[in-house]
Amino acid sequence: MRILIVGGGPAGLTFAACLLRHGIEPVVVEKAVRGRTGGYSIGLHINGWQVAERLGLVETFRAKAMPLGPAHHLDRRGRKLFSYDYRTLAKAAEGRLLAIMRSDFHEILTDAVEGRCPIRYETTVTALEDDGGGVDATFSDGSSERFDLVVGADGYRSAVRALAFGPHDEFLRPLGYRASAWRVPLGKPLGANFVGMMDVDHQGGLYAVGDGTAATLFCWRDARTGRLDPEARRAVLQKEFGHWPEPVASALTSAIDWDQAFFDTVAQIEVPKWSKGRIALLGDAAWCLTFLAGQGTSTAMAGAYILAAELARKNHREALESYEARMRPLVTRMQSVSRKIGGHYIPQSTFGMRLQSWILPVMLSRPLIRFTSSRLAAPLLALD
Fold first, then answer.
1. For residue 383, is it within any domain?
2. Which of 26, 116, 130, 131 could in theory staple to 3 by disulfide, Cβ–Cβ 3.0 to 4.6 A?
3. What is the per-residue pLDDT for 40?
């Protein structure tokens, strides 16, 4: 079986590694140059952890993990609202939880597959023709090749989905927010692993990476979904957060490499069926849980593992049906969690912000953390 994977991010590279584990060699195409990744942090949770264990990558991820420790939340004047400790979350997950920069995560996965299968950078798919017996893919360099299966793992704005399933807006479900993330140098230590600030309709913060830099994450209420050029992005960030004090002030005045940064609408993707003939979708291209659920990367890894396992033992029709049947309940649940969390993560009123500052420390305390995790975290998937 010859499989084309469109997208060399976490979903696509994990899928490639899982296919190689079954003796199937894929071809990966990625539109970015080699080494280009977003400057934000991601979490590895239980289902992604399971996949990492099977791929023999857990210790490699651990070696690159960001430190876990206290998190402080402040109001926009710099006054403390509440605190909790990420180590309590890790303990509740029995140690199977870590945070890692996306660039490090991507590098580890690239090392796991590079040299074992082709990865073609600066390459996109411009046309797909499924005749029932295979798929003819045309690439941005004008070449064309035939594959038994094409899997779109090319993210939230998937080109494969647009080519084979329909326009982007048809499947877009905006949650009413925008978000931006990039990496900044720290002039002085944060004093915690995470320092966040919040106000009505706004949330922003910095995660200490451990190397003298921090990963930022800003989110604000904004119903618009159009893309903005770098100059307009900077202007929006200044308008929304420019009056906030340190450490946000320094983050906003730092240089931002928009080729490595993130700025987009916070939205889920809802596709009625994740496959069409010999073309399938995986990860954000199929569902996009958003960072609000905190399970996007791990769920994509689990989907990659299950899809590869099904393809290794069944014909493509049965494999794609089984993959969706096994993954759809989890995705539906976590999309619901993401929608619910949004209203708490971005407070809608001063009262709501104060209420959150009272409730969250209790819900994240040792006596209640397991209960909280059971309500918000993804359930354990049976991978094998």
1. no
2. 26
3. 76
**pLDDT of the residue at 37:** 66
Which residues pair with residue 189 across a beta bridge? none
DSSP string for 49-85: HHHHHHTT-HHHHHHHPPP--EEEEEETTS-EEEEEE
How far apart CA 116 and CA 203 sit, in angstroms, is: 42
Is there a domain that residue 384 lies in?
no
Q: What is the pLDDT of residue 138?
A: 98
CA–CA distance from 167 to each of 158, 159, 170 (Å)?
Answer: 10, 9, 6
**How far is C-alpha 192 from the geometric centre of its chain's CA atoms?**
24
Can you give the CATH number for the domain in which 79 is found? 3.50.50.60
Q: How far apart are CA 327 and CA 338, in angstroms?
A: 17
Can you say whether the dihedral through the CA atoms of 306, 324, 103, 92 is positive or negative?
negative
Please state the φ and ψ torsions of residue 374, each to the nearest 5 degrees. -65, -25
Measure the CA–CA gap between 265 and 179, rounded to whole angstroms: 6
- Indicate the average pLDDT of the chain: 93
> Among residues 56, 54, 15, which one has the least CA distance to residue 327?
15
242 CB neighbour count, 10 Å cutoff: 13
List residues bridging with 32 in a β-sheet. none
Contact in structure between 292 and 338 (CB atoms under 8 Å): yes
Quick one: tokens of 299? 């769920």
| Domain count of the fold of the chain | 1
**Domain interval for residue 26:** 3-376
Instruction: Give the 3-state secondary structure percentages of the chain, helix then strand then coil, rounded to 5.
Output: 40, 25, 35
Query: CA-to-CA distance for 330 and 321, rounded, in angstroms?
Result: 15
Tokens of 277: 């003939």
